Amino acid sequence: MGKYINILDDLTINKISAGEVVERPSSVVKELLENAIDSGATQIVVDIVDGGKKSIKISDNGCGILSSEVEKCFLRHATSKIQKIDDLYNLYSLGFRGEALASIAAVSNLEMTTKSEDEVVGTKIVLSGSKIVKKEPIGCKNGTTIIVKDLFFNTPVRAKFLKSTHAETINISDLVNKLAIGNPAVRLKYINNSKLMLNTPGDDKLINVIRSIYGKDITENLIELNYEDDKIKIYGYIGNNNIYRSNKNLQHIYINNRYVKSKVILDAINESYKGIIPINKFAVCFLNIELNPNEIDVNIHPTKLEVKFQNEKDIYIAIRDIVKNKLLNISLIGKYKSYSENTVEANKQDENKSVNVKNNVNEGYTEKKSNLLDVREKKEEY
Known about the structure:
10 helices; five-stranded mixed beta sheet; 17 strands; alpha+beta
């Protein structure tokens, strides 16, 4: 540590912050898409070019931003979602840090067009590396459109660490799918290099979103789960014993509509499926868990993917028992059996097949012998 302490300028601070919040194009899509959802939008369009490295465009029909507030969007820790520290413990929105737009603007050429229903005309603002290039009134629909171009143009070292266009596209597609499943009431259209990749109905029916993404084979083997008591509400779909995976890619968990990675919850679900699906396989699930925000902390990681529970053991037991009881009480008699039961039944079927084949052979031999005797008798008679 040196003798002198330097106060960093805002641009440097924003670029450092961007390193935490904006790691790659999918990070930009995540922040902007969550903002669009939090704005109350019912229709959102995500349009990317070259894996988001060349261009990312997100349009929504949400509440929009007042002209007088537009420039504040690009200041650090400027947010409309919380006002004081206590709000963090009563939080239902997807974003709250107020760093996203400032961080994105610091490492890209950004253009935003927005209009609130309270104003006659909208506002267009253009920034390059956090510097405002232009701000002017413009005619547009209610809502917000943000275009991010040339990501990391002013930080070439970071641009070199981006993966291939194909790899970045896969990451964005996975992210869009997760947010679509967590928000079935939002009609979400996803376009990649002018090709339509996803178009959800926005009818607030989770099963229809799952079908749009994963198709008929998955949705036909899902079991609806809907449970609520005074401490927890859990709803969505879990897979029967006909579908499972060798990884956790189809285990979608949401806490108060926020997609999260929670070892506690996934361990509880996997415990519920013991004896139902093969060992070392993972169940398919799409579950949203509603808890009192006071009992969880979502402010432990910049990406907001991780959560911390006040009572982890209670959450584990509750989810394990809810899922297990649903699986044990499911009324798919004949179709729904445990993995061990299926194995026993398969062995019995094989034994029956062997017996049937043996019987058929014996019957055929007997019939053939009888026919030969009849012919012999007729010849002797003649």
